[in-house]
Queue: 2 jobs
Job 1
Amino acid sequence: MVTRGFTGRGSGGDNSNRIPPGQHLADNFPVLSAGPTPSVETSDWKFTVKIGPKPVKVWNWNEFNALPKTKVTKDIHCVTSWSKLDTIWEGVLIEDILADAGLDQPTGFVLAHGYDGYSTNVPLADLLSGKAMVALKYAGKPLPRDHGGPARLLVPHLYFWKSAKWVNALQFTARDEPGFWESRGYHIYGDPWREQRYTND
Amino acid sequence: MTENDTQIGSWQPCVIEEIVQQTPSIKSFFLRLSKPFAHIAGQHVDVRLTAPDGYSAMRSYSVASSTNSSPIIELAIERLPDGEVSSFFHDVAAIGDEIELRGPLGGHFLWPEPAVDAILLIGAGSGLAPLMAMIRQRRATSPAVPTALLLSARTAEDVLFSKELHSNEISDAAFVLALAITREKPIRASDFGRRIDGEMVQEVVARLHRKPTQIFVCGSNGFVNIATDGALLAGLDPSIIKTERYGG
Ligand SMILES: Cc1cc2nc3c(=O)[nH]c(=O)nc-3n(C[C@H](O)[C@H](O)[C@H](O)COP(=O)(O)OP(=O)(O)OC[C@H]3O[C@@H](n4cnc5c(N)ncnc54)[C@H](O)[C@@H]3O)c2cc1C
């Protein structure tokens, strides 16, 4: 349905094939989250990998920072319809975290947890093969609090609510368990190219 | 309704029935739904505009009206300089135009039904929209619930729904209205002439006579950070604070 009088800014020119349906390019980096912005000092920061309720390994900030680091340049897509191209992140790939914990693939599903009580579910396959990391830097600088610092999950091929801010744990679950937004009307998987925004999309 | 069974609508055309200039930068758009839905105060809709070449732009807008049997919903849209969608609404959209939307959306920033305990609402600019839906829903379904609105605006004329809020305050002893006016001297002694801070939140909570059990904060991200910092400095528990950030 064409909207009378609307021309819009156009579809991103040469980059239009990089922008999923219903998305538009943002020139800034909008901030969205469901509660207050937590303030976590790196001296208090801890990161845990669990299988079900059982912690398998805990790292402090220095230990975590000693893990191999990877730099990636990725396009990101927020369900509120903005996309941002060529964002630069540095952090620890999920396979490098699991290797350090001596884990292979305990189950096929992961719930990521944040310091703010947030959670989001991602199938393990979507976290491996260089697809995802726990990011510690954005654009070459320590990750700002507003964007999830000190550390956030980065799963850029899914809608950005999957990239849990202030991440402090990855928990292996037996089944695909809906996280915070997934149990509040948002899609269980969240592929921007299939426009999986809400539950039945 | 629990948080889990939020209904997700599909795209539907709706017609602009009425446009009201509310403040110098905010207009209300009254949209007649072709497939009416019942929303919970605090929810939003996604609006989609489509250009002749097929390009489309989508944005979220909170529903400002309360749930009732009416097929007409109200959106309060603030004009952002060079905003692709908000300036279309302000400069181009006219009564009788068709717009596509889907909703109701959002399963977190929701007025509790039934509401029983004291509630604090904090907003700025068009961030009042979902809070206004809550105030309207409260008036209809739980008028006894002590509720305070701390609303930040640059000047008195930037206060959205000013008349309705002031008349609510006069007619309703359980409703507290406090304005934080940042760019001019406030007219009423009960209002504040500065940005929101911890002391101010504390004073508004004192006027509620009870500690709020839920706090809803809505506006731009910068504003939400200032307001939630204020609430935390006032000693309120972060786990009872829900935020709706308009990005930016
Ligand atoms: C859940 C939800 C509910 C919302 N409800 C409402 C509502 O009820 N009323 C309403 O007016 N808006 C609301 N918004 C914001 C709305 O979705 C759009 O983001 C807004 O209208 C701007 O869109 P635009 O196309 O006009 O501007 P764009 O073209 O997207 O952006 C224009 C420029 O403005 C900047 N910008 C974006 N937001 C802000 C801001 N808040 N303050 C200052 N600069 C900013 C951007 O950085 C950009 O450079 C809501 C957003 C969300 C996520």
Note: The longest strand of chain A covers residues 82-93.
Job 2
Amino acid sequence: MKKFWALFFWFWPLVALYLCVIAPGRNWWFPSKPLSTLGHQIDGLFYLILIIVTVTFVGTEFALGYALWKGATKNPSSRAWFSHGSHKLEIVWTIVPAFVLVFISLTQLDVLADIRVLSRFPDSVKEAPVAEVMARQFEWRIRYPKPGTDLMTSPQPGDLYYVNEVHVPAAVPTMINLRTQDVQHAFFVPRLRVKQDAVPGLVIPVWFEIEEAGDYELLCAELCGWGHYKMKARIVAESPEGVSAYLTRLEREQNEDGVQEAETASVE
Amino acid sequence: MRLGLAIMLHTAVLKRAGIAAFLAIVVTGCSDNNASFSISEKTRSLIPEAQAGIAESPGVVALLDQKFGTPQTLKAWMKLPVQWGGAAAKVEVFAADGGEAKVKFTAEEGQTFPEKAGFVNVVTGAGAGKTFSVSSWDAATGEAVLTGLDGGSLAAGDICSIDGGSTIQSGRVLYMRHCSHCHGTAGDGNGPTAQYLYPRPRDYRHGVFKFTSTNDMSKVSRDDLLRVLRYGIPGTYMPSFLLMKDDELTAIVEYVRFLSMRGEFERKLVNELASDFSEDAVESRLKDEQRSDIVGELAKFLAEDLPGVVDGIGAELEETWVAADTEDARIIPSVPRVPDSDESRRRGRELYLSKTLNCADCHGIDGAGNGPQTMIYEKNPVTSVPYNEPGLHDVWDNLNQPRNLHTGIFRGGRRPIDLFCRIHAGIKGSRMPSFKNTPHEDIWHIVNYVLSIPFESEPGATGVAAAPAAAPDAAAAPAAGE
Ligand SMILES: [Cu+2]
């Protein structure tokens, strides 16, 4: 029975290792491969931390099993070694994890700065948000500047509006301004690994570079009220020409006066 | 549920109790098996005999059940212009083989076969009333394999309904999931979350919808309802359902129309009875009549006149709801939008302030939604009881304040045609009146002005053309908007 516990604690790190080996092949990790440039960096950090904790977990479990095994097979009459209060040990197991933590925090600084610090954003997007994404209980309201003009913080005549769908160019860096009209929400695009809180009173720039054209799910990741689950929207990444064609269409629709519409209908 | 979970985390004995509590909540909490269409307050104001019916003659409640059913077993009153789903079809070839049968259908005129089919209801012929399940179905050819015949049979020429009611059924399921917590099971605008919202969720039972592209006297069109579902109503709690699939949206629209017609039917029916047979009316009649006489009169009315009344209401519903989807009902401006200019906006402002249109009476001189009308005390038009709070009230008896036009939020949409329709037809059910007699060109001037209000340098900054001396200055100054 004594040996059972040693085997028990050796068993789990083996399970963990096995899972680590088979997981990628079975697609047990993320919803998909990262599809934005920042996503690769973020996933890189994730894997780095995963390796560190796996090594730590496996190491400590084996050591635990080893100690138990030693205890189980020891001559019962021999004396125990009393380690409590050993300064040497205390110092070692304080300093080693501290080094690991400092190492992690230093390595992620760069990525964090790339995500959050405006001056590190790619030059092409710094001054040019393509749209304002306004979170609201319980939907995403989108405002584009009138084609050919810049997005202003306050609405301008000719701005174009939509809801729950935002079109952005693919394969080039893109920035949106994130705001909220009421409570705190969070802009979360799982496949891009983008997640940013929307905070009342702030205009928060968020940038990403989507690598492949396509539809991406945008979710609210901050429990914002009873209708939180409704806050699902779509990001449509397409060629820059596609985006401007879309905006032209939107502009035409938004200026609809019901007369041209009737005329084209009768022509068709 | 949280309580149940918390208990689960404790000792072994409590753990079992916790799981039991948890299961009990799951079982009782999440079923809508007993959902029912609530009966309106108006119906409840009738004497019990008028609600329940007398002897063989159904009363209001029974009629509602006969014509519309319950949420679990909806009934299709075929007269009503609702797309119930499925298709009517005639049997062409029938070849039975044990419990199975190969059948070829031809769609009846104007019907198209549904993509998928799960069951067939027999409408005419020897097997009328029977239901067979469909094990394979080819929408292109109309060939089906039916199972579960149990001795039942079909003959060439029988009329069947294939997957009848599938649209309204899926509309109901989606509505119960996404809408009923605000709009209520019966569409009475009184779901559990409704009491926390202002404006209140729409009560469909009046058959009145605010944001339409139809004339002031017309009902809402299917396209209008679809638009509201896709884009939501900005500035209110009505959310956007843009990401739903088109067929889901059309199914919900049909269900909303179904609920509206049900509500209207109930209202109209009760109106026929209320003047003589409401509790109040009967109480005052009792002064010089016997209750048994009144009930006898009611029995006669229910047996002899009511069937005609029901048909009449059905015909009216059919006519008005069909008309709303025709071109005749649609508002089409006779002139294109007048190009936006300072001049046009000033003309719009002038009209806004004019004695004839008098928008300022409600929306205020500067459009802040604070005109004199917001300060009057109104009475409920039906009961004559004064409302508790000052201001205008809509047909749903809710406070209905004129909009502050500076917010830049237009609930019915910001396209020029949207605002044109708002002014031309008014906002139905609300206190925003129709200005359909105003020349269309003038409406466009007002639209241009209204669209520019959110961008005025200060409230009321748009001058009026009537002050000729001011005009050149105003034109030279930087435009308020663009
Ligand atoms: Cu949210």
Note: The longest strand of chain B covers residues 87-97.
